[in-house]
Amino acid sequence: MATQTPAPAAGLRETKKHETRQLISDHATRLFIAQGFEETTIAEIAAAARVAKKTVTNYFPRKEDLALDHQEEFAASLGRAVTARRPGESALAALRRAFADAVATQDPVAGFSGQEFARMIADSPTLTVCLRGLHDQREHHLAQVLADVTAAPSDDITVQTAAALLGSVHRVLFHRIQTLTLAGHPNDQIAHTIAAEAAQAFDLLEPALADYASA
């Protein structure tokens, strides 16, 4: 009877790859914060992590990927919340609830990145543009999900408008969290402020989207 050794070996390889990726990411973030994103080179990151430059680019094809390494999670977050909505819950209600949960846990995906990280992004034209693109991707992904759950064409004007409205509220709140972070407010205070402001923001959408895409 053959022994099943490939699975554990594969598991060890994946663990090693994950550790290497995290090591590179950690050193990159440290260098970006210390000397700026634009000023830091891939060679410096490779040297700090004690790996080859090729290893860095294998794990992170673009330099921006080293700084914003949760891009897929960010882009899918709104669509995922709508997909997981409760029975009878609208897309707006699901997103409102998910955002409240993110604020309560001070989730970095919602914008709670810490002052040093927020400053790193704000000081980098490259990262600022990249973040703007991620917001656009998130809205596009949300539109796809809304089209699926309402059985509407992806270019339907209602789908596109709803995604734009819901995406814009999250974009505004994200930047509001970043602004308060850069101003030196502690996370607990920011969370308290944003919880109240988010309620106001989402209330503005209730007349138009209260029943839209209900499960």
UniProtKB/TrEMBL annotation:
It comes from Nonomuraea jabiensis. Keywords: DNA-binding, Transcription, Transcription regulation. Residues 1-20 are annotated as: Disordered. Gene3D superfamilies: Homeodomain-like, Tetracycline Repressor, domain 2. One of its GO terms (molecular function) is transcription cis-regulatory region binding. It comes from the Bacteria. The keyword Protein transport does not apply. Residues 18-78 form the HTH tetR-type domain. The keyword Nucleotide-binding does not apply. InterPro entries: Homeodomain-like_sf, HTH-type_TetR-like_transc_reg, HTH_TetR. This is AcrR family transcriptional regulator. Residues 41-60 bind DNA. It holds the Pfam family TetR_N.
